[in-house]
Design goal:
The complex is a heterodimer of chains A (about 400) and B (about 260). With about 400 residues, chain A is an alpha/beta fold. Chain A has helices at about 30-45, 45-60, 70-75, 95-110, 120-135, 145-150, 150-160, 175-190, 205-215, 215-225, 245-250, 270, 310-315, 330-340, 350-360, 385-390, and strands at about 15, 20, 65-70, 80-85, 115-120, 135-145, 165, 190-195, 235-240, 260-265, 275-280, 280-285, 320-325, 370-375. Chain A has 2 domains: about 15-55 and about 95-210, Rossmann fold; about 60-95 and about 215-390, 3-Layer(aba) Sandwich (Rossmann fold). Classes of the chains: A alpha/beta (about 400), B alpha/beta (about 260). The interface of A and B includes residues 14, 176 and 292 of A.
Chain lengths: ~400, ~260
């Protein structure tokens, strides 16, 4: 395993994972990125900070989340399927892991305010939650299209004391929310931390967010050992920007497990994208022949992002992880299947990973394989949309 | 020394404050007429915005103009072609986001800019740390690379920006994206921090929307950049003579 020793390690001094990553931001934001990098390096090597992060995750966020064997679906598919239950974490998805890390860091840097972007609303809700817990002021930017698709999450954020700003520029979805959050950050960087929600953006965000999410994979590896499964044959996670995938992959990157990222077909940066620079990073992006960024289209707001985190681009380029795309049509049936056979309603994002497993059993996933599904979020936020789709109303 | 640096230093030696209007190329079909009108109105340098789908450093006015331009099918290539028929002796600068040049090919892009009469480039999302490849491409083709200094830039970085920036340093007057502002900003302090370490010309931009603001900024710098306020006139249907009058009002204020 020597050639894999450094997989998912620390990026180089420019924040690069191979050719990807870096720091492509206006000069106004450079000092903040440098300050953040220094603050994160110092905090992450400080046992007191790390202990506090783990304590908050345990006492407030409900960690560790269990690994649940899925016997009925396993039997039906002819594999041994296990789910890492991030849907059981506070606020209903893995997003809380990252925001607890970042909001604790915000306090440590002495900043009283956070801003965030959100797509489906999960990261926005998680940020508003952690901000409320730690007494930080919070503003969330959300594409106007998404504020309508995820109306209840807007209200949740408001209940938690956050201000939600609908973004009306561009495609009015996640990428535009990131643009607007960046613009806002320029005006208030002295007292505000930008709590980015995925393994994307300028260095140190892709690395830092992966580190805060790596708890998923670290826990899961130990839990699978306890269950007597050991290293699974395959680890599967859905990928928008890629934070839940990065988190679970981190626990298995240096094992023999196959790592599979599942993108939405309408936002498949690895399958359909090319290298470019957006939102502070060099990565794989959906773009036209002139370098204009294209809009992603997916049934799930959380995967509607035309790029992917730079470390995923690197893992794809080096073949350490494989990325596949699933179309909207397969997602609803996978969501129903998991709900009916195991009593777990997954988020639409997560249902992409389920759909890939169902589709590839007997193909890329040989029968008899042990498979870990990162069950990144619960489907409560999506039930109204799913009902409409299943009834043919949307 | 690159062509742009020679010109801008001689402009300063003549005692003339540089007036730099900004246009979003292709925002209207007759955009090159607007550029010519600005020259008549007394512009010394023209900054030409190449539209990008995700302009992170721009406020709503320039976003809107960029969107209109993209909807009209504007590309880096189409802009360069239109500029070839532009008759003007004053320096032209391109301003755009890195992905546009990256996608065109860095060396090819720098060469194409120079061929169409552009002698400098401003790439606001290209940090000093990531700029080596682009600067090397610009060096091959006599294109100057202009970097920005913001109010947040610490002294050590100010020195490095001043050393690397060619032609002038773009001093951002405030912590903001492009667009009108009514406050005085921090331009004077930013310019002073540059003066301490370098004799490179310093132009002030971001939030300068009136002749009075321009006059104040010009009093402590070598030039002023006027963007959103001018683009707004064009979005509202302004004619070339409106543009000329607007630019002249700034010219007269900063003489």
């Amino acid at each position: 395993m020597s050639e894999r020793d450094h997989v998912m390690g620390v990026p180089d001094e420019r924040g690069r994972f191979g050719d990807f990553g870096g720091r492509f931001v206006p000069e106004a934001l450079m000092p903040a990125c440098l300050e953040l990098e220094e603050a994160f390096r110092s905090a992450w090597s400080d046992v007191t900070f790390v202990a506090e992060y783990h304590l908050v995750l345990r006492q407030f966020a409900g960690r560790p989340t269990p690994v649940t064997p899925l016997p009925r679906l396993s039997e039906r598919l002819g594999i041994s399927l296990f789910a890492k239950r991030e849907d059981l974490a506070h606020t209903g998805s893995h997003k809380i892991n990252n925001v607890i890390g970042q909001t604790l860091l915000t306090k440590r840097m002495g900043k009283p305010r956070v801003i965030a972007e959100t797509g489906a609303g999960q990261h926005g809700v998680a940020t508003a939650t952690a901000a409320a817990r730690l007494g930080l002021s919070c503003t969330v930017f959300m594409g106007e299209v998404d504020t309508k698709r995820q109306e209840l999450n807007v209200f949740r954020m408001e209940l938690l004391g956050a201000t939600v700003v609908p973004v009306t520029s561009g495609s009015r979805t996640l990428k535009d929310a990131v643009n607007e959050a960046m613009r806002e950050w320029v005006t208030c960087v002295a007292d505000t931390h930008y709590c980015l929600g995925s393994v994307m953006g300028p260095h140190p965000f892709p690395w830092m967010v992966r580190e805060f999410q790596s708890i998923i994979g670290i826990e899961a590896a130990a839990q699978l050992d306890e269950l007597g499964v050991g290293t699974p044959d395959v680890v599967v996670a859905c990928v928008g920007g890629g934070s839940n995938a990065a988190g679970v992959f981190a626990g298995f990157a240096n094992s023999d497990a196959r790592l599979i990222g599942v993108e939405a077909a309408g936002g498949a940066a690895v399958r359909s994208g090319s290298p470019g620079v957006l939102h502070g990073m060099r990565s794989l992006l959906l773009q036209d022949e002139f370098g204009q960024i294209e809009e992603a289209h997916s049934i799930s707001a959380g995967l509607d992002y035309p790029g992917i985190g730079p470390e995923h681009a690197y893992l794809a380029a080096t073949n350490r992880a494989e990325y596949y795309a699933i179309g909207d049509e397969d997602v609803l049936s996978a969501l129903s299947l998991l709900s009916e056979s195991e009593g777990i309603i997954p988020a639409l994002e997560t249902a992409h990973a389920v759909a890939w497993i169902v589709k590839e059993v007997g193909g890329l996933v040989p029968r008899g394989s042990s498979v870990l599904l990162n069950l990144s979020g619960r489907g409560d936020k999506d039930v109204a949309q799913v009902r409409a789709l299943l009834r043919g109303e949307a | 020394m690159k062509s742009l640096e020679v010109k801008l230093r001689s402009l300063r030696a003549e005692g003339r404050k540089a007036l730099v209007p900004y246009f979003v190329a292709g925002a209207t079909p007759d955009w090159t007429r607007h550029v010519e009108a600005a020259v008549l109105g007394g512009a010394d340098v023209i900054e030409i915005g190449v539209p990008f789908s995700d302009p992170m450093m721009d406020g709503v006015v320039i976003q809107e103009a960029a969107l209109r331009s993209l909807e009209r099918g504007t590309t880096l290539e189409s802009i360069c072609q239109e500029l070839e028929s532009l008759e003007t002796a004053i320096p032209l600068l391109a301003m755009t986001y890195y992905n546009i040049f990256l996608h065109y090919g860095l060396s090819r892009a720098a060469g194409r800019l120079r061929e169409s009469g552009i002698t400098g480039a401003i790439v606001p999302d290209l940090s000093l740390e990531e700029s080596d490849e682009w600067c090397a491409a610009c060096d091959e083709h006599d294109v100057a690379t202009v970097f920005l200094v913001a109010p947040s830039t610490p002294a050590s970085r100010v020195r490095e920006v001043a050393r690397r920036s060619q032609g002038f340093v773009y001093a951002s007057a405030r912590m903001a994206v492009t667009g009108a502002a009514s406050d005085e900003g921090e331009g004077a302090r930013v310019v002073a921090s540059l003066r301490e370490v370098s004799d490179v010309p310093v132009y002030v931009g971001i939030g300068i929307s009136t002749p009075t603001q321009a006059a104040v900024a010009a009093s402590f710098s070598d030039g002023v950049i006027v963007g959103s306020a001018l683009v707004k006139i064009i979005l509202e249907g302004g004619t070339p003579s409106d543009v000329e009058a607007f630019v002249r009002s700034f010219r007269e204020a900063i003489l």
